[in-house]
Design goal:
This protein has about 80 residues and is an all-beta fold. About 0% of the residues lie in helices and about 55% in strands.
Length: about 80
Amino acid sequence: MVPVSVTTTLADVTSISLLVSENPNTLVASYKIPAGTVPAVANRIKMAKTSNVLVIVEAGSKLYSATKEVKVTVGGCGG
């Protein structure tokens, strides 16, 4: 389980989605962000191996993305 949090300073955010490219089900979570709330989410993602975590933010009818590689080690311990 990998803790992941996403925050953004973009205006008019309507959704935030988390995807893991190497998971059997790529879409991990998708959140609808109500108007007037802080666009921030947190989740614990189950990952079997090292993979890219992709975040897609919809704001002002446009899509924005960010990717970060998350390294997973067997047993959860590693250097």
